[in-house]
Specification:
mainly alpha, about 65% helix
Length: about 260
């Protein structure tokens, strides 16, 4: 695992790497395999910023007073969590995970649960604010903080909902499918663009926002172009209506005569 570090890292990164390895070796060699494999993966993607944040996370985690079982657990969950983060959000999600783990490593699992339930959709600023509120609750009661950041409390869910701007396709997929089928009379379904290969959704060097193949309409996995959730939801609906119009009238151009025929 040293080869990617030497190829992609700089002198400062090498020092951080050596420090992290030394800390983890103090717990046992069993802590190294999966975390370093994930680090190599980040470096091979040339994501040095995320790799640096990940090393800081490993240092903060394994420098704490952990049992053998806890070390095993973190050596397993941390690399998998980091690799699951979307590349365009990974850096600051790792940093917020580090904040939580540094404050109390027992909150790591609840926070990862919260990310899986929807916190991963928050913007950089919103996630930072959410974590700050969660850590404020840690001063009162750890269980209260755990329920908040894992989205198990009403307050946590309400706070997350107020902060959420990004809309994932999973929240609108069934509704849009029902609309398109009612509008066109065809058994067409909505699917996320990620199910297609990159070559299929790239045209003239730019990624396509919507595609259809006669059976499915493919829309972005998530939309966060606008500052409000309702606007991003509306964009999904507009894209679906436009594509449905193509199936309904066999063109994207507005035809007044055809419109009257359908009335």
């Amino acid at each position: 695992y040293l080869v990617p570090v030497l190829i992609h890292g700089d002198d400062r990164f090498l020092v951080c790497f050596q420090q992290a390895v030394e800390i983890m070796l103090n717990k046992g060699t069993y802590t190294l395999k999966d975390p370093l494999r994930a680090l190599a993966s980040l470096l091979n993607e040339q994501d040095l910023e995320s790799a640096s944040a990940y090393l800081d996370l490993l240092c903060d985690t394994f420098s704490q007073n952990l049992s053998y079982v806890q070390c095993q657990h973190f050596a397993y969950i941390l690399p998998r969590a980091v690799r699951s983060f979307s590349s365009n959000r990974r850096v600051w999600q790792i940093k917020q995970l580090q904040r939580v783990t540094r404050a109390d490593f027992r909150l790591t699992d609840p926070f990862l649960d919260g990310l899986e339930k929807g916190l991963h959709l928050l913007s950089k600023e919103a996630l930072s604010s959410f974590v700050s509120q969660g850590l404020d609750k840690l001063k009162q009661n750890r269980k209260l903080a755990a329920k908040f950041i894992s989205l198990e409390s009403k307050l946590g869910i309400d706070t997350f909902t107020d902060m959420q701007v990004t809309v994932p396709i999973s929240q609108v997929q069934h509704q849009l499918t029902r609309y398109i089928r009612a509008r066109t009379g065809l058994p067409i379904s909505v699917r996320p663009l990620s199910l297609l290969s990159n070559s299929s959704i790239t045209e003239h060097g730019e990624k396509t926002f919507v595609l259809s193949d006669g059976k499915y309409i493919y829309l972005p996995d998530e939309i966060s172009l606008f500052p409000h959730k309702t606007e991003n939801t509306m964009l999904y609906k507009c894209l679906a209506r436009l594509e449905a119009g193509h199936y309904e009238f066999n063109t994207f151009d507005f035809d007044l005569e055809k419109a009257f025929e359908r009335c």
